[in-house]
Write a structure and sequence with these properties.
The complex is a heterodimer of chains A (about 325) and B (about 350). Chain A has one domain: ABC transporter involved in vitamin B12 uptake, BtuC, CATH 1.10.3470. Chain A contains 13 helices and two strands; from the N terminus they run H-H-H-H-H-H-E-E-H-H-H-H-H-H-H. In chain A, helix 3 crosses helix 12 and helix 11 packs parallel to helix 13. Chain B has one domain: ABC transporter involved in vitamin B12 uptake, BtuC, CATH 1.10.3470. Chain B is globular, with a radius of gyration of 21 Å. Classes of the chains: A mainly alpha (about 325), B mainly alpha (about 350). The interface between A and B is large, with 51 and 47 residues.
């Protein structure tokens, strides 16, 4: 029993390095997607202290809108543009209808409001688009479908072209986002708001504009995640669960940290895959991915309560 | 005029500290109890029992448990559904190991199992705060539901993986299972809920309740005036999980009749959280008002199309329900962030000074 826990998994890893690489690759791909979703959370949390539970349903909603528009005969790329428009309208509506009247309320109230938005969007999405599983329009968007087979150490390593595309696009998006945050006026305004609300307001940064902007960025991220995940698993409301996967990433990386979201996402993606393959399936009956990330984050938090990269918590009476 | 408190003089500290210092409050409670214990059971139909009365009571109890933790002690928890599950599975194992056990005793005991697990998952709260803790309680949520699925001993190795409530009787009257009458189930639920509500009202008024409130309002300040935070937080977790566990046992044994592991998944947690927040955090009455709204609303919404003579298919009604409930949650949060309990307090204030505006 002890050997099964402490020794055999390592032996398995060394004996089949190609399989280990495969596992690591799959972990990396999902890790990048977790990091993307977590980034959406972090941006909104930094600029408005809102813990945006609706990020997951925004992913579903964006993907459904895209697929739905295409089903009405809209060409794929125009559908993407239109979906971005829809996400912008959504961001403006949420800011106007929900957030503005709730400014200054306790965090938990704002959190509940985002759950209310989630429920509303679930009902709305099901009425308009229907609940059944749909195919993502990957071919029309020019996402390659084949795979590359590598043979490291005489073994077998299959890289889906789809996954490679996802990794490249996600990396580009993250890079673009970081550049936006660091080198543009708008981006610096977002960061200023994250550092100190009142100081930012006093130098003339508009809270409302920034809120719409971060929700719109979260919408763009949602669309990219929706396309990537939808191409792998189909578009349905089950996609919403990947939002839950972003939560331990946030715990691990810290709610305010952009670096934390990226590093945490990759760590959780890879570690949960490793645990599932080498410990979960042989010893615990599998499907450990639902909770492993949370437990890992919980253990890390016991030692660093603000997460790996979070702002140090200073408490005063 | 209707609620005039003038003339009710308190001549001792004891009278001032009484549970109901205002006569009208006591009278109102008497009316509600009479309604719940005598009048409603006499007039309610089978449908009303199963769709409204029993679930409202069970969800009120669960929300009350959560409210102790979140509203009184200030520790946000998203794992309520899983703790309800612990109570339900513990009760199921107890009645299958000791079949002659009295069901009410089993239900009240099953709360202790979820209390123990609640304390275990509450330990991180000593270091983690706010949203980090909320996500940490999600660890309990996902881990426990996974455990309900994988640990076959919990559901007696049956093929379906679900727990099925057997016919159980107390003194020859069936109280649970397919043969039990709705009215018996209702009275059992009502008894347990009334009992625990009374305990909770008194707990929150006493030393423990004040300790919790101090912890909630500012934990460092509370620590400085000599409150043991560990004790305060862990008792909140224990008592809250106990009540939630009992509510979970009632949920399966006296309402659902059977449950699969995913019945305790995250939507259940959120439903209970909605009730607690819409009802009002830090209140006891609010849980009942919130449960009436959240449980009653879908039932009413289901009846509306029929009443108007419009035929909409049931899937559509379901989705409309979800949408309307979501919209209403946002609406209520905007209109009254402190919940229905606050709304009642305002009405009461107005009634006291009526017909004058000030």
């Amino acid at each position: 029993m002890l050997a099964d826990i402490f020794i055999n998994p390592w032996i398995d890893m060394v004996e089949a390095p190609d399989f280990l690489l495969q596992v690591l690759w799959e972990g990396l791909v999902s890790g990048i997607l977790y990091a993307l979703i977590a980034l959406g959370f972090v941006l909104i949390f930094r600029s408005s202290r809102i813990f945006n539970f609706a990020q997951g349903i925004m992913v579903v909603f964006a993907a459904l809108t895209l697929v739905g528009l295409h089903a009405y005969g809209v060409p794929a790329w125009i559908a993407v543009a239109l979906t971005l428009g829809v996400m912008f309208i959504l961001a403006v509506t949420i800011e106007r209808v929900v957030l503005r009247p709730l400014v200054g309320q306790p965090d938990i109230i704002l959190f509940m409001a985002t759950i209310g938005i989630t429920l509303f969007l679930i009902g709305f999405g099901e009425i308009i688009f229907g609940g059944e599983n749909k195919q993502m329009i990957s071919a029309e968007l020019g996402i390659p479908t084949g795979d590359t087979v590598l043979e490291p150490w005489g073994g077998l390593l299959i890289l889906q072209h789809l996954d490679i595309t996802v990794v490249i696009v996600a990396t580009l998006l993250v890079a673009a986002l970081l550049a936006f945050l660091n080198f543009t006026q708008m981006g610096r305004a977002i960061r200023a708001l994250g550092d100190d609300h009142q100081a930012a307001l006093s130098v003339g940064i508009s809270l409302q504009t920034i809120w719409v902007l971060v929700w719109f960025i979260a919408g763009i991220i949602a669309l990219v995640t929706g396309i990537a995940w939808g191409a792998r698993a189909g578009v349905s409301f089950a996609l919403e669960v990947i939002a839950y996967k972003a939560l331990p990433v946030l715990m691990l990386g810290g709610l305010e940290s952009i670096t934390g979201a990226i590093v945490g996402g990759l760590m959780i993606g890879i570690l949960e895959k490793l645990f599932e393959i080498y410990w979960g399936q042989p010893l615990l009956g599998g499907n450990t991915e639902t909770w492993f990330a949370f437990v890992l984050a919980l253990i890390v938090l016991l030692f660093r309560p603000q997460g790996l990269f979070g702002e140090r918590i200073i408490e005063r009476v | 005029m209707l609620y005039r408190t003038a003339g009710q003089f308190k001549t001792s500290y004891q009278a001032d500290q009484a549970l109901f210092p205002v006569k009208q409050d006591a009278f109102l409670l008497g009316v509600i109890l009479l309604l719940a214990w005598v009048i409603l059971p006499m007039v309610a139909s089978e449908f009303v029992f199963q769709a409204l009365l029993i679930p409202v009571l069970i969800f009120s109890l669960a929300a009350l448990g959560l409210n102790i933790l979140t509203g009184f002690a200030g520790q946000l928890s998203l794992g309520t559904g899983a703790f309800m599950g612990v109570g339900a599975y513990a009760c199921y194992k107890m009645v299958s190991i000791f079949p002659e056990m009295n069901l009410i005793v089993a239900i009240l005991l099953s709360g202790f199992f979820s209390a123990a697990i609640g304390v275990a998952f509450g330990i991180p709260s000593l270091r983690i705060k706010g949203f980090y803790l909320a996500i940490a309680t999600l660890a309990a949520q996902f881990f426990l539901v996974w455990l309900f699925e994988k640990w076959a001993w919990l559901y007696n190795y049956n093929a379906s993986g679900a727990i099925q409530v057997p016919n159980l009787d107390i003194f020859g009257i069936f109280v649970s299972g397919p043969q039990a009458a709705s009215i018996t189930e209702y009275y059992v639920v009502l008894f347990v809920v009334s009992l625990l509500t009374m305990v909770c009202i008194n707990l929150t008024r006493g030393t423990l309740g004040r300790t919790w409130k101090a912890t909630r309002d500012m934990d460092i300040a509370a620590e400085l005036i000599g409150i043991n935070l560990m004790k305060s937080k862990l008792t909140a977790f224990a008592i809250s999980s106990y009540i939630v566990g009992v509510a979970g046992a009632l949920y399966v044994f006296l309402w659902k009749g059977a449950a699969e592991p995913n019945a305790f998944d995250i939507p259940l947690s959120f439903q209970v959280l909605f009730i607690a927040i819409i009802g009002g955090l830090g209140s006891v009455l609010g849980n009942y008002l919130g449960a009436i709204l959240i449980v009653g609303l879908p039932v009413v919404l289901n009846l509306v199309p029929n009443a108007l003579g419009i035929s909409i298919n049931s899937a559509m009604v379901e989705h409309l329900n979800v949408m309307i409930v979501g919209g209403l949650i946002v609406f209520f949060l905007i209109v009254e962030p402190h919940g229905l309990n606050q709304l009642w307090r305002l009405i009461r204030e107005k009634l006291i000074i009526w017909p004058f505006p000030h």
